[in-house]
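USER:
I wish I could look at a protein chain and see how it folds. I am handing you a single protein, as its sequence and its fold in token form. As I understand it, each token names a local backbone shape. I hope you can help me see how the letters and the tokens relate. The protein I mean follows directly.
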Amino acid sequence: MTTLTSSFIEFALKKKVLQFGDFTTKAGRQSPYFFNLGAFDDGDSLKTLGEFYANKILNSKIEFDLLYGPAYKGIPLVSSISIALSAQKINIPYTYNRKEIKDHGEGGKIVGSPLKGKVLIIDDVISAGTSVTESFDLIKSYGAVPVGVLVAIDRQEKGSNEISATQEVYEKYNIPVIPIIGLDDIIKYLQDKIKFQGILDKMQNYKDRYGII
């Protein structure tokens, strides 16, 4: 496990973004953990979150010209990431979409830099890939090229086709999905922490039942 990975898990635990207990997922599964990126809800945590995303981008070596954040969660993400990259002397433009097209003022569906070139999509988590599909179609409609998706977490769970949402995105669009952490990373982290031993078995059982191979 990399330092970035373990540090992000600790950051998520501290802010209660990552919690353990009994939760029901959107798919109706009983999950022993819950991940809510919206709990990074103050200036310090948003700044740190942007730095984690920025460092993951740099580590991935992916080539891109523009950050795109789908409304709504993607909006503060691309903002904080672009600031974090700027602090490392890398000035990258960003843009995001409106849920409804504005018919006055500057108008249109896009806010920020023009949607062009190689575009890196930023989101919190992929579930069913619906958000990615909408983002992909919008980006292509402007003549730009989606080159990847960066998310905070990959749940690494089987979907309806017995493959994960991440794998579905890659098979459908031939673009990589780059997570900061995944379910496997959380389990590996718990293995070294005595206080989480009661949770570890539940996490492993969940992976055995729903996780991808």
Observations:
- Residues 152 and 180 are 5 Å apart (CA to CA).
- The radius of gyration is 17 Å.
